[in-house]
Design goal:
mainly alpha
């Protein structure tokens, strides 16, 4: 079962990331660095704001449903009741702020907000599939939006579509993915929105909010470089850095499928207090993440001079060095993704929050010092330093906590 799910997850996540990258590569060849920089910045800002609609409920759903599959419909209903008002507030707030600050970018931020918040909302449904260990359904529904982009964006730009038209396609792709996924999920559970009891809401929030804090910190850590590049430099510098980071994000398909499959497994092991089984799976995940990150880092150090111009065009020459530095952080990035999953499974969030908070503050401080002088390459070195500190710090805390649980269980 695990092997089958892992195969589906690898293929699905790989396809999602590959399509996302291919579409961005097409856009980079047809539109200016100024437009791409504005686009990347809008995605960064709306992703951080959009995380406030998720409030940690996706991981909460996986853990709760993995522990009690019969309650899947009720757990989803509680989450939808909480999230739908937050989605409306987030999108309207983004549009209102942009209308006040820079009305010329209202279309950009409105369409990107719909796209990003729609994707975030999809994970509520996708998490139910993961919790039920129906990984194939999660994979197929997760490919609906990317498939729309892969078909419509290249066809549009090749026929002279404007950037505004491309942005509309992004928004529509998220709406279509949400609609089809809700329909697919309704075949397995009763998808409904009921007013839950105050006690039920309190229980959901007490589980989800610490995860939410962790998610927001991780997002800020990943996106703050682009925001500070826009503040201290310009949109072209944002595009140079974001292109390299997009490649790094694509490489995470080497570890994300594994974590998708193992989260419900680890959550179930933790719920049943099977600590020896938990420790074995967690150890394999950590070492596998480090090994995969090291292999990908070495590969990209060698191949970046060919891959970057091929993907983004000759105008992105500065992105080559940025990409090489960013990929030095691949082992730490993969490890960080894995240890956060382990921390979530252990419900050991507070320690991870403290470590990530320190890492985010360190990232912001270092960026403020190096970006005005060195630009995108300075931001890349900052990412390497702070990602490594965060991943190693959380790993140390997990080892201490897990050793204590094994000892108390009689080991």
């Amino acid at each position: 079962m695990i092997v089958k799910n892992l195969i589906f997850a690898v293929l699905g996540q790989g396809a999602e990331k590959a399509i996302s990258f291919l579409v961005i590569a097409v856009l980079a060849h047809y539109f200016s660095q100024l437009e791409m920089g504005q686009f990347f910045l809008a995605i960064s800002i709306t992703t951080i704001v959009g995380s406030f609609t998720e409030i940690g409920t996706s991981t909460h759903l996986v853990r709760a449903i993995a522990s009690d599959p019969d309650e899947a419909s009720s757990r989803l209903s509680e989450v939808l009741f909480l999230r739908i008002p937050l989605v409306a507030i987030a999108v309207s707030s983004i549009c209102f702020c942009v209308l006040i600050v820079d009305p010329d970018q209202l279309w950009l931020y409105t369409t990107v907000a719909i796209y990003v918040v729609g994707q975030s909302s999809y994970y509520a449904f996708g998490s139910v599939f993961v919790g039920l260990q129906r990984i194939s359904d999660r994979v197929f529904t997760g490919l609906i939006g990317p498939a729309v982009l892969l078909f419509a964006v290249p066809l549009g730009v090749w026929n002279g579509m404007s950037f505004r038209g491309v942005l509309l396609i992004y928004a529509v792709s998220s709406i279509m993915m949400l609609a089809f996924t809700a329909k697919a999920l309704s075949r397995h559970i009763n998808v409904r929105i009921l007013i839950p009891s105050r006690r039920s809401v309190k229980k959901t929030l007490s589980s989800a909010l610490p995860i939410f804090a962790l998610t927001v910190l991780a997002l800020i850590h990943a996106r703050i470089d682009e925001i500070m590049l826009a503040i201290y430099r310009d949109y072209e510098e944002v595009a140079i850095y974001a292109a390299g980071y997009k490649l790094l994000e694509v490489s995470r398909m080497a570890v994300r499928p594994v974590t998708m499959v193992l989260l419900p497994v680890l959550a179930a092991a933790a719920a049943s207090r099977a600590w020896f089984e938990f420790r074995s799976s967690a150890s394999n995940l950590v070492w596998g993440s480090l090994a995969a990150g090291a292999v990908i880092a070495i590969t990209m150090l060698l191949l970046s001079p060919w891959i970057v111009p091929l993907a983004f065009g000759d105008s992105y020459g500065k992105t080559i060095t940025v990409t090489q530095v960013l990929f030095l952080s691949a082992p730490a990035l993969f490890l960080g993704h894995s240890v956060i999953l382990i921390a979530n499974s252990l419900n050991m969030i507070k320690g991870a929050i403290v470590i990530l908070t320190c890492s985010v503050l360190g990232n912001a401080l270092l960026n403020a010092l190096v970006i005005p002088i060195y630009g995108a390459i300075g931001a890349a070195w900052t990412t390497l330093i702070t990602e490594s500190m965060a991943a190693l710090g959380i790993l140390v805390v997990i080892k201490v906590v897990l050793r204590r649980k094994v000892e108390l269980s009689g080991g």
